[in-house]
Specification:
Elements (H helix, E strand, L loop, with lengths): L9 E10 L2 E7 L8 E2 L1 E4 L6 H13 L2 E2 L3 E10 L4 E10 L2 E2 L10 E8 L9 H15 L4
Parallel strand pairs: 1-7
Antiparallel strand pairs: 1-2, 1-4, 2-3, 2-9, 5-8, 6-7
InterPro entries: NUDIX_hydrolase-like_dom_sf (IPR015797), NUDIX_hydrolase_CS (IPR020084), NUDIX_hydrolase_dom (IPR000086)
Organism: Ensifer adhaerens
Protein name: NUDIX domain-containing protein
């Protein structure tokens, strides 16, 4: 049957978590884009809505309890170095409780809150797309 993202385009999701004008980013341990800074997110399971998957992944990866979210953008990542192809629905939230943690140290090595004008490098492709979309969203500019 094959693996999503490797043998055929995978369907993923992401969530930009915003607090005090900063976004939460984690550093990836594994491919795709190992060592890159990333918003929380992952694969959408069969018969799971992407918005629910984004909240599930965020809660699993950060330990936060996620409230309401809204659609932010769509991102397509063709990652030649890792031979992976993903299409991801990305959402944004300011509605959450708790403090972020490293709940999956085998997948994510560190985290921090970063302002949009001082993002760490390198950024994953879908994180760069999400940051651009969030800048436009906050300026009231259509995508």
């Amino acid at each position: 049957m094959g693996q999503p993202g490797i043998d055929f385009p995978g369907f993923g999701c992401g969530l930009v978590i915003v607090r005090d004008g900063k976004i939460l980013l984690y550093r990836r341990v594994n491919a795709p884009e190992a060592g890159h800074w990333n918003i929380v997110g992952g694969k959408v399971d069969h018969m799971e809505r992407s918005q629910a998957a984004a909240c599930r992944e965020a809660e699993e990866e950060s330990g936060l309890k996620i409230g309401s979210t809204e659609f932010l953008c769509l991102s397509e990542q063709v990652i030649d170095a890792d031979r992976q192809h993903w299409i991801s629905m990305i959402y944004v939230t300011r509605d959450f409780s708790g403090e972020p943690q490293l709940t999956e140290p085998d997948k994510l090595s560190e985290f921090g809150w970063f302002s949009l004008d001082a993002l760490p490098q390198p950024l994953s492709r879908f994180t760069a797309d999400a940051a651009d979309a969030l800048r436009r969203h906050e300026q009231g500019v259509a995508a």
